[in-house]
Design brief:
Blueprint lengths: L2 E5 L2 E2 L2 E2 L1 H17 L2 E8 L7 H5 L4 E6 L8 H15 L3 E5 L2 H14 L3 E5 L1 E4 L4 E7 L4 E7 L5 E5 L15 E4 L31 E5 L9 H10 L3 E4 L1 H5 L20 E5 L5 H4 L7 E6 L12 E4 L2 H12 L1
Parallel strand pairs: 1-4, 1-6, 4-5, 5-12, 6-11, 7-11, 13-14, 13-15, 15-16, 16-17
Antiparallel strand pairs: 2-3, 8-9, 9-10
Helix pairs in contact: 3-4, 5-8
Bound molecules: flavin-adenine dinucleotide (FAD).
Length: about 325
């Protein structure tokens, strides 16, 4: 039987959302292809991060508990993955298109001599192989590409593209794999984990986003949007011009060169809806757009639209929603 293997990503004892997002995809592919879904959890010691949630989301939970794997280290992860993947030969190996996945996937693909597709937005297994949706030329085009048949594929998945469910109705067998012999392995060493500053909010984690675009007019108007966001328990995000102007930090930017988000509610204030922006937020639960131009592209995919001047609409929204 075919195997789809997902590499779990964890930090500070927490399995990251991306792992469960990939599992949503993996479990769907598993049903379509009648394949088993396994998770490889490399961690330090005997406390396995997210063990219960992972076991409830896959068929086989493979764990390697080893001090050398307590923190992400490309050299150590590569050594372990090379060994495990050579033994198991899963058909699909999936990991996040995160800093970890971007660091790991190319070297792993080269070592195993298997095809790698990065930053995948959607996959569809076909009898001949695999079709993948990804963006090209900085998000200008969406391409559906077919891969040549291969025995194995390595894919990195863009965060925010699939639903994050911590528990997917499964009950995995736990298998503890042998730890690794690190003798002779020299290279990178983990020194310390540095938290990002409090100013750097992770917009990808927010349930509600109030997002400002160039239509907000000037930086002096940002506090009004922030007040509205605070009043409804939302986080403030923005389009690229707002970040480029330095009105909000780059960490708040949504889109192809910013973050992909999937909040329950996305309120776009003065954002035109260019495809590079759309690509980063189109999977939001409910999209509400405020724009003075009825022809603005955002009205083509928003669930609710308000045509009007954002500075006049904002106080009304605050009164109604807060
Ligand atoms: P605009 O397109 O200028 O739209 C402003 C909107 O505000 C207009 O629709 C206007 O009608 C409306 N408006 C004006 N005044 C008011 C008012 N008073 N009340 C209500 N509405 C008003 N963009 C991103 O956002 N994220 C990215 O990650 C990103 N990456 C990119 C990567 C590349 C390689 C490239 C080439 C571009 C990228 N862009 C990105 C830029 C993208 O193409 C657009 O230029 C950008 O999204 C436009 O931002 P905006 O909607 O805020 O501004």
């Amino acid at each position: 039987m075919e195997e789809i293997l997902v590499l779990a990503e964890h930090r500070q004892g927490q399995v990251r959302d991306i792992t469960f997002e990939i599992l949503t995809l993996a479990n769907r592919l598993g049903i379509e292809r009648e394949a088993t879904v396994s998770v490889l959890l490399s961690c330090g010691g005997e406390a396995y991060p997210g063990e219960k949630e992972l076991a409830a989301s896959c068929d086989d939970l493979l764990v390697i508990g080893d001090e050398g794997l307590a923190h992400y280290n490309a050299d150590h992860y590569l050594a372990v993955l090379e060994r495990v993947l050579a033994e198991r030969r899963p058909r699909f190996i999936l990991m996040g298109h995160t800093s970890m996945g971007m660091d790991l996937a190319p070297s792993l693909a080269a070592r195993l001599s298997i095809p790698l597709v990065t930053d995948c937005l959607e996959e569809e297994a076909t009898s001949g192989g695999l079709q993948i949706l990804r963006q090209m030329y900085g998000g200008k085009i969406q391409a559906r590409i077919s891969l040549k048949p291969s025995e194995q594929y390595l894919l990195t998945i863009r965060p925010g593209c699939f639903e994050c469910r911590r528990g997917q109705g499964k009950s995995a067998h736990l298998k503890v794999l042998d730890s690794h012999d690190w003798t002779g392995l020299r290279g990178r060493r983990f020194l310390e984990y540095l938290e990002t500053g409090p100013a750097d909010v992770d917009i990808a984690e927010a349930d509600i986003l109030v997002s400002v675009g160039r239509g907000i007019g000037k930086p002096e108007n940002i506090p009004l949007a922030q007040e509205f966001a605070d009043a409804i328990g939302a986080t403030l995000s923005c389009s690229r011009p707002v970040a480029d102007e330095g009105w909000l930090p780059k960490s708040r930017q949504v889109g192809t060169s910013g973050k992909t988000v999937r909040p329950k509610v996305y309120i776009a204030l003065g954002i035109s809806g260019a495809y590079q922006h759309q690509a980063g937020m189109k999977n939001s639960g409910t999209i509400i757009a405020v724009n003075k131009d009825p022809q603005a592209p955002i009205f083509g995919f928003a669930h609710y639209g308000i045509i009007g001047d954002v500075m006049k609409v904002l106080p009304i929204l605050k009164e109604k929603f807060a």
